[in-house]
Design a protein that fits this description.
With 442 residues, the protein is α+β, with helices and mostly antiparallel strands. The protein has 14 helices and 13 strands. The structure holds zinc ion (2 copies). The site of one zinc ion has 8 residues, from loops.
Length: 442
């Protein structure tokens, strides 16, 4: 079937606005809007039907009626009236878009208003249409063998996107847009999905007694109670809060998620070059922030407790990486033995545990919140680096991420084996633990 015959059949089948008629041939020709395609087809159909209709050709008259009934095409009405023929009732709205194509400017305006509060350098328009409406178009196309059509969703997304792009001078981005404008055309509603900004860096925790994550009070669940002194949390602050609060302010974000490459215990410091982390800032109003100044601000406010370095923009892929790659760690641990230990014993211990494979069941101290499972981790190097008394020795341990070092010291009642205590055959416990390096290229 040629294009004109298809167009005539479409118009006889249902009332269509210019854009919806043109969209059925949207893949034909460049540099035209679908409305222009549709209008052109209607005009050509009218011109070809004119004389035949005057000569009484029923087919031609029917076609003019179809054109007129659309209500979007005055010339067909005029021609019928001129010929003394009755023009049909005007159909209310377009069968395929329900009038949405007439409101593209309005929808784009709404989107622009919603976007005004946000900084973004690219965007995407997403269209949410009810299934029945999309099925209508599919069925009509199948019925009439239309092969070069574009979908309503596509056209709306493109046309609204074009208007936003021209108004603000920002490009459309398909892969990783800063903002997705979600339009529900039938409801006349526009929502924004503002994608997060990711900022990566490393942190050092300079004091003991601060958890990495905000520790919500287990008695009140964060609402506040006597146990938590009405703060809703068990520690006044955390690494995560100290870092994310200034970031939330700078990016004018609604909230933030703190992702780190592992964690240290509350009573362990995090020293050396620091632990890699990524902060995910959710629904930020600002996206271009001076990270050097932000770094200074965080360090000033968290003075003496936490410091960050190397802040830079990152993406979600880095979050996945730092969370999934168990990085090797270097720890320093101050150990107290129940009895004096000799230098020979320490040399023997170094030889025995450097390169050892450690079998470790979930430590008793975290068993209430973690499932009991066996971990197998390696100690690459264990070295006694400082003797502080007959029973006190500081060790440096390089091992796989995920190894519980306190239990490597005390053996956790046999749940971690081999252990320092097990090898020396003397009770031992970790008095102080510091992470001095997280070996990860980020
Ligand atoms: Zn339409
Ligand atoms: Zn509480």
């Amino acid at each position: 079937m040629d294009i004109l015959k298809q167009a005539a059949a479409l118009l006889k089948r249902a009332p269509l606005c210019d854009a919806c008629l043109g969209r059925q041939f949207g893949m034909l020709g460049f540099g035209l809007t679908n409305a222009e395609r549709g209008k052109a087809l209607k005009i050509v159909l009218l011109l070809t039907a004119h004389r035949a209709a005057e000569a009484g050709d029923q087919q031609a008259i029917e076609l003019l009626r179809a054109l007129a009934s659309n209500g979007f095409f005055r010339p067909a009405r005029l021609l019928l009236e001129k010929m003394g023929l009755e023009a049909p009732e005007e159909a209310g709205e377009c069968y395929l878009c329900c009038g949405v194509m007439d409101r593209v400017d309005e929808l784009a305006q709404k989107a622009l208003e919603a976007l005004r509060a946000y900084e973004f350098s690219n965007f995407l328009v997403g269209i949410e249409l009810p299934t029945w409406l999309e099925e209508r178009e599919d069925e009509l196309r199948a019925e009439l063998g239309i092969q070069h059509g574009e979908s309503l969703r596509n056209e709306l997304s493109r046309e609204i996107g074009k208007r936003i792009s021209v108004a603000l001078g920002v490009p459309v981005e398909f892969r990783k847009p800063d903002v997705v404008v979600l339009v529900q055309p039938l409801e006349d509603s526009v929502r924004l999905q503002v994608n997060p900004v990711f900022v990566a860096g490393r942190y050092r925790k300079l004091v003991r007694g601060i958890p990495q994550a905000k520790w919500v009070c287990t008695r009140c669940g964060g609402r506040g109670c006597p146990r938590c002194n009405w703060t809703g949390k068990l520690y006044p602050t955390s690494v995560s809060e100290l870092i994310t609060e200034p970031m939330i302010e700078a990016f004018e974000a609604e909230e933030a998620a703190f992702h780190a490459a592992g964690r240290e215990d509350v009573d362990a410091r995090m020293l050396g070059a620091g632990r890699p982390f990524v902060v995910e800032l959710k629904r930020p109003r600002k996206r271009s922030v001076d990270l050097a100044a932000l770094e200074e601000e965080i360090n000033k406010r968290a003075e003496g407790m936490v410091s960050v370095s190397g802040l830079r923009y990152a993406d979600r892929a880095l979050v996945r990486r730092i969370k999934s790659e168990p990085a090797e760690k270097i720890y320093e641990v101050l150990v107290e033995f129940d009895e004096p230990v000799s230098d020979e014993q320490l040399r023997g211990l170094e030889r025995a545990l450097s390169g050892a494979t450690i079998r470790q069941w979930t430590p008793t101290r975290v068993l209430h919140r973690r499932p009991d499972k066996l971990r197998v981790r390696r100690v690459y190097e264990l070295k006694a680096i400082e003797r502080l008394g007959p029973k006190r020795v500081r060790f440096r341990v390089r091992c796989d991420g995920g190894l519980y070092v306190k239990e490597l010291v005390d053996g956790d009642g046999g749940r971690t084996t081999p252990s320092i205590s097990e090898f020396i055959k003397v009770g031992a416990k970790a008095l102080e633990l510091d992470v001095v390096d997280v070996l990860m290229e980020v």
